[in-house]
Amino acid sequence: MAIEHDYFGLIGDYWAERKEYGDQDVEVVLDADGDAVSSASLDVAATMVGELELIDDELRSAFVGQLDSSQSPVTRFLRAVMGGEAAESADAAISRDSGDRDIDALRSLTLVRVDLRPDADGDGEVFAEFEYGLAPEELDARLVASIDIGREVVDVRYDA
Known about the structure:
two-stranded antiparallel sheet, elongated
């Protein structure tokens, strides 16, 4: 059975739209079973859509915090896209020059897609995934941050 929501409309299995903010065009997807999702969770998801820029800034700050570890997903992602065959495309996509190449790369990431899962509304469950790419139209590598309903980072992974 599907339910109706003020922002998302009729909730069945899948809802998607493109959102623009700044110079980014982001695909936002809501994947939910109408029988298993609460109105409160849908309201939180709608708020996240309205606050994409704020959440994006929070996640980029979390990425910076992972630069200290050479084994973190953020560091592995940056080494993969800025080294080897991908280096030229990655360098062309870096739009800032502060003198710190890793920070400049993180600031130049494109938010490609946001997946919302309002039926995963418990603490520590993956409520939303934010998928980033550096030169995403040319490179397949993605940095994915998962957050729970309270916007706490649950996981960060590098998808090659």
